[in-house]
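Quick review question:
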């Protein structure tokens, strides 16, 4: 019998701890043993991630300039209730001032460095273990108070075993914090401590415990009622800490979900489901819907974490301690009310008898 060309038959594997949940092709040739040939992953896209990176740099620059730029007074036509239009003096950001451009650049450079370090921590570890992963996809949002919705990378499932998945998941938060904490310290060393004017409406950013500790260490005791006045570096550090704490919540495909699954396996599913319903109950009771979109997306993606290529691979004592220690950052970096508008009460003048 003459030899014939090999026939490739795609076979879908059911995800479990022993087999990888991706498509393999088996080459069958008459008279020979079948050869297992993993399908080659597609090359990651480059152009679109680069364009999104540039767009996010621009959006964070605009937000930084808008929040910390020089203010000027101009005359503008304002519509009144009676239908007439009159000139009034209003304050706007002076984009011709060098201070506006400088502060916009400071905020953008600091925040993008934190986000870039976070995503490259994931990406480089994935490349180290041969796990297919996309370049970081940054999400621009040209409106205050952040200028971005963060960044993500797409990682192929079923290629990493338990230890490799742990290293990939934990490297991002740790790399981001290596920059976020020093940037916070730099911002605190140059920030002003002010007591808001009575009756003034201010946008207040919730201070996580770690920021309060850093403020006590860098600034020291502060007058009663005094608040830290944000500057570009302090705000970028605050955003970096806040985003890191959100990612470390142990649910589904978040970084914390990867870490917890690698630590305790399928028991992490129960914790993730309970945390999601606890978040819903908290928002319903407090009427604080700040995290409504995030909770909805987590419900859509599912609380369960898919298995690794081999869940039986041991982590070792060092990784176990590091994993639990990193998850604890949620308690010191997360704030239930990230942003709020507060009006200072007027000063009470004592009445003379």
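Suggested answer, residue by residue:
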């Amino acid at each position: 019998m003459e030899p014939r060309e090999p026939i490739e038959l795609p076979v879908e594997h059911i995800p479990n701890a022993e087999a990888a949940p991706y498509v393999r092709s088996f080459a069958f040739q008459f008279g020979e043993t079948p050869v297992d040939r993993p399908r080659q992953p597609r090359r990651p896209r480059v152009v679109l991630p680069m364009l999104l990176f540039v767009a996010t740099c621009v959006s964070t620059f605009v937000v930084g300039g808008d929040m910390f730029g020089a203010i000027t007074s101009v005359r503008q036509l304002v519509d009144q209730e009676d239908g007439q239009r009159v000139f009034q003096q209003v304050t706007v950001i002076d984009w011709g001032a060098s201070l506006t451009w400088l502060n916009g650049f400071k905020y953008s450079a600091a925040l993008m460095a934190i986000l870039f370090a976070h995503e490259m921590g994931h990406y480089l570890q994935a490349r180290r273990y041969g796990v297919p992963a996309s370049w970081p996809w940054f999400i621009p949002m040209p409106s205050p108070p952040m200028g971005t919705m963060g960044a993500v990378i797409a990682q192929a499932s079923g290629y990493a075993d338990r230890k490799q998945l742990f290293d990939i998941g934990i490297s991002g938060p740790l790399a981001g914090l290596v920059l976020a904490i020093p940037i916070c310290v730099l911002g605190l060393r140059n920030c002003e401590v002010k007591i808001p004017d009575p009756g003034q409406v201010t946008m207040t950013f919730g201070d996580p415990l770690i920021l309060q500790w850093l403020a006590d260490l860098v600034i020291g005791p502060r007058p009663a009622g005094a608040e830290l006045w944000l500057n570009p570096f302090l705000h970028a550090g605050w955003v970096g800490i806040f985003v890191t704490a959100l990612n470390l919540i142990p649910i589904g495909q978040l970084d914390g979900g990867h870490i917890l699954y690698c630590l305790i396996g399928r028991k992490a599913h129960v914790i993730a489901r309970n945390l999601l319903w606890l978040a819903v109950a908290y928002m319903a009771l407090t009427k604080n819907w700040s995290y409504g979109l995030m909770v909805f997306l987590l419900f859509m993606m599912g609380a369960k974490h898919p298995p690794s290529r081999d869940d039986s691979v041991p982590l070792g004592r060092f990784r176990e301690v590091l994993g639990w220690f990193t998850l604890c950052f949620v308690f010191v970096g997360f704030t239930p009310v990230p942003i709020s508008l507060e009006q200072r009460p007027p000063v009470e003048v004592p009445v003379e008898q």
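Why it works: Residues 47-343 form one domain. The longest strand covers residues 71-79.
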